[in-house]
Amino acid sequence: MFEEEYDVIVVGGGHAGAEAAAAAANLGSKTLLVTMNLQNIGQMSCNPAMGGIAKGQIVREIDALGGYSGIVSDKSAIQFKMLNKSKGPAMWSPRTQNDRMRFAEEWRLMLERTENVDFYQEMVSGLLIENNKVVGVKTSLGINIKSKSVVLTNGTFLNGLIHIGEKQFGGGRAGERAATGITEQLVELGFESGRMKTGTPPRVDGRSLDYSKMIVQPGDVIPEKFSYTKTKPLTHQRDCYMTHTSAMVHDLLREGFDRSPMFNGRIKSLGPRYCPSIEDKINRFADKDSHQMFIEPEGWETVEVYVNGFSTSLPEDVQFKALRSVVGFENVKFFRPGYAIEYDYFPPTQLKHTLETKLVENLYFAGQINGTTGYEEAASQGLMAGINAHLKLQEKDALILKRDEAYIGVLIDDLITKGTEEPYRMFTSRAEYRTLLRQDNADLRLTPLSHSIGLATDTRMKRMEEKLEQSEALVNFFRETSVLPKDINPIFESVDSSLVKQSDKMYKAFSRPNVTMDHMLQLEDVSNFVKENNFDSEILEQAEVQIKYSGYIAKEKVNADKLHRLEAVKIPVNFDYSKLKSLSFEAREKMTKIQPVTISQASRISGVTPSDISVLLVYLGR
C-alpha cells in the first residue's frame, strides 16, 4: 500500500497535525497525514471558538506565516469580538465563535485541496527507528510506512482515560478510542513522560433553555476577521448569552464531591490552572457564591449549545441536577455530560527549539503531547514543526522565532527552556515584548520571514508590503503636516485637553491622550488625504498605534536588542557544566538537562541566577 517513502508523516489530525501537514506540504514535502478518524480532522474537541486573550495574536501569527487556522476560522465564524478594546493595543485580542461542523469541514477541504498531502485512517502504534533516527511509523494493522521524518501530534489520545464521576473508560475523546503503544516505546527509548488532565462541560439542547432570563452577549458592531487574506468579515452574527451559578447550585454540586474523581484520588494529574472545572472553582474560591457561565451556540443551524464555565467530571446525575438550578436552565436537556480526560505528555525540555526531539533525530512533537492546552497553542506548534521538518530535510537553516518576534516564539521558548508541569496556556503577560507583538502587525513581523522560506505566497507578501507602505505614508503625513489652533482646539476641548495658541505638527496633537483617529478625521486635511489614498480601517488603526505608542515601541526595541546580544553568545554543543564548580548545583543540573544553545536561553532557565550567567560568560571569554 505504501511503497514510496514520504518526506514527512504527521500522526494525528487535530489542530497541530493539520497545520503541520499543510506547512510541510506547501513547502514541497511529500506528506502523509495519519489519523484514527478522517471525519474528525480539525475537530474542536472543547469550546467552539478560536482566539481570545493572547490566543488571538497566535492565530494572526499563524495566518501571517501562511498557515490555515485564520482562514478556517473566518470561513466558519458565527460571531467576532475584539477583546480588551478598553485597554492598550498590546492587549487587543481577536476571538471568533465558530460553527463546529463547518470548522472541521473547512479544515478537511483545505487539506484535500493542498498538493502533496496524502491521507490514511488508522492508529499509529509505534515508530520505526534506526540508529537513533526515525524512519517511519507502524500502524495497528502491522503496516510499516517509511518516511524521512515524523511529527507526533497525538493530542489527548496517548493512553487517554475518560472520567465521569466514579466511571472511567479508555478514550482520547468522547466516542473515540485511546491510542496505545507510542508512549511505551518512547519511554523505552529514554524519554521522560508524564500525565496531564483536561476537561470539558456538558453540551445541551438550546431549545430547552430560556434565553430571556440571560444576558445577551452580541458580537462587535463592525466585525473584523483573523486572516490577512481576502476572507470576508461577517455580515450577520449569532448572539451568545451569559448567566450565573448560585449558592444553591454550588450546594448541589458539593453533594457529588465524594464521587468526584478529582477529589477521591482517581485523577492524580494536574489540570489547566486557568480553565478550572466548576467543582475546582467552588473548592478554590469558597467565598464566592456565583460564577459566570457563557452560553455558546455550536453553529448556525444546530441547536446544540456549549456551556462555557461549567467544565466538570462529576457524576452525570449531579451535573444534571445542578444545571437545572441555573437561571435559564430550569428545563435543560442534555446532549452529553461533561467529563475529564487524563493523557500522556512528554516534558518539552526534551526538545530543541525546532520541536525536534533531542533523543531521536527527525522526530518532532507538537501540541498537547508537549504539555500545552488550547487549539491555538497546538496549531502554532504544528505549523513550526511542519516547517522545520521540511527545512531540515532540505538541509536549510531552521526557522526559530525569537521572543520579540512572535507569541509563537515565546510559547516554544517557554516550553523548551522552562518546561511545564501543568497544561501551558498563553497569556499576554508571558511576553515581555507584547507592545511589539500586537495582533494588528503580525503580518508585518512574520510574512517576510515566511516568504523567505517559500511558505507565504507572493500575494501575501505584496499585500503586506502595501500595508506597510500605506501606514508609513499616513504616519509621515501626520509627522510633516501642521494644524492651526482654530482647527485643533475644538477637538482638544471635546476631550478636556489643554488648548494651544500656535500651530504645531499633527503628529504631536495626535499623540495626546484621548485624541483618536476619529477625532483627527474631523480635520479636512486628514479626511481628504485618507480619501485620496483610499486607506481602509486596517491602515488607519496601524498608523494610530504607531503614533500613540511610539515611545513604548522604541523602548521595547532597545530591550530586544540587548536580548539579541546575549543570543549571539553561543554555548558549545554538549558543554560539560560539571567542570564549572562556581556554578550553583541547581544551575549545573538544569543546564546539563536542557542544554541551552545560547547565553540568553540559559538565563531564562528557572533556577539559573545572574551570577551563574556571569560565571558562564567569564568562562566563554566574554
UniProtKB/TrEMBL annotation:
Domain tRNA uridine 5-carboxymethylaminomethyl modification enzyme C-terminal subdomain span(s) in chain numbering: 547-618
Binding site for NAD(+): 271-285
SUPFAM superfamilies reported in the protein's UniProt record: FAD/NAD(P)-binding domain
Keywords: Cytoplasm, FAD, Flavoprotein, NAD, tRNA processing
GO molecular function: flavin adenine dinucleotide binding
Highest taxon in the source lineage: Bacteria
Gene3D superfamilies for the chain: FAD/NAD(P)-binding domain (3.50.50.60), GidA associated domain, C-terminal subdomain (1.10.150.570), tRNA uridine 5-carboxymethylaminomethyl modification enzyme MnmG/GidA (1.10.10.1800)
Cofactors (names): FAD
Binding-site list for FAD: G12, G13, G14, H15, A16, G17
Main location group: cytoplasm
Subcellular locations according to the entry: Cytoplasm
A biological-process GO annotation: tRNA methylation
Record-linked InterPro entries: FAD/NAD-bd_sf, GIDA_C_N, MnmG, MnmG-rel, MnmG-rel_CS, MnmG_C, MnmG_C_subdom, MnmG_C_subdom_sf
Subunit structure: Homodimer. Heterotetramer of two MnmE and two MnmG subunits.
PANTHER family: GLUCOSE INHIBITED DIVISION PROTEIN A, PROTEIN MTO1 HOMOLOG, MITOCHONDRIAL
Similarity field: Belongs to the MnmG family.
Protein name: tRNA uridine 5-carboxymethylaminomethyl modification enzyme MnmG
Organism (species): Maribacter stanieri
